[in-house]
Here is the input.
Amino acid sequence: MDLWILQKRPSGLLEPYELTRLREEARGLGIRVDAVAPEEIDLIVSRGGRRSIRRCGIEVDLPDALLPRTGSATDYFSLAILRQMEHLGVEVINSSQSIEAVKDKLYSLQILAQNNLPIPRTMLVRFPVDVDLVAQQIGFPCVVKLLVGSYGEGVVLSRDPGGFRDLMELIASLDRSQAVILQQYIGSRVGQDLRVWVIGGRVLGAMLRSSTDGSFKANISRGGDGHPYPLSPELEQLALSCAAALNLDIAGVDLLFDDDQYSVCEVNSAAGFAGFEAATGVNVARAVLEHCLERASGDGPIPSVLKAFLEASTTT
Ligand SMILES: Nc1ncnc2c1ncn2[C@@H]1O[C@H](COP(=O)(O)OP(=O)(O)O)[C@@H](O)[C@H]1O
Ligand SMILES: [Mg+2]
Here is the structure.
């Protein structure tokens, strides 16, 4: 199988951990991996067929599958490439539609809420901000987030109405068109959350993330610690439902501890897995590639009910 991994060119000399790991595991599975940057692609939309994608100015054969790893940095251009590849019959995992949805933090929460999944109460900011309404609907402290972002950048805890008013004034003076959401602060376990990996309708494992600098943000990329976390049927079901609602084949589901329940923080379409592999020993790279192989060979994921039935009938 030929697999393209769509990934922005690294700013430094070092290749991202995820790409190195995917290359390593691909060798054992007989997959030819090619890392392709969106900047290398020219897209020609016409009635013509598979020759509408050029790479570095040259017509190329299309791969069997494409793994986008651009996550929340997926811009219009990258989405256009994904849509074209889908149209040309390339298996795109995750799909353009699902990546576009999860990139927008409010839209993805809207979808989760429509599917009756637990999320923190969330509000879209309209300038000038009605602070009394925020106090009434969201409460303080509240979490302020830019609509698009990752690595915990653009996520701030606002402790009281006075500081909140100042922060809103600052944002409005910088860019009034900036889309910002406000979220109920889920503070049962400060600076801790869970990352659950879901691939092809199966949960790979869970990791407890804890910030190490006193921040309320648990992102590993900000120096957070990762430890394996035991799965439970409730946890698995919730993570699977989130991935299914957002139509993601591959998902990093982030959950907040909300008393004795969970609240969904966000779902990532191309989560990093350096911290997860190190903390849990789970081979995420291999699971991702095996899923790509399955998809490219036309075997859709087997529904869990059928899987359980097949397993039961082979063991008896
Ligand atoms: N509503 C919330 N209540 C408590 N903590 C939160 C909340 N939202 C986010 N966090 C913390 O902040 C971190 C970053 O927020 P997140 O929305 O996931 O942004 P990013 O996409 O940048 O990772 C989360 O991993 C979590 O630890
Ligand atoms: Mg996050």
Remarks:
- The two ends are 35 Å apart (CA to CA).
- The mean pLDDT is 92.
- Residues 121-184 form a domain with the Dna Ligase; domain 1 fold (CATH 3.30.1490.20).
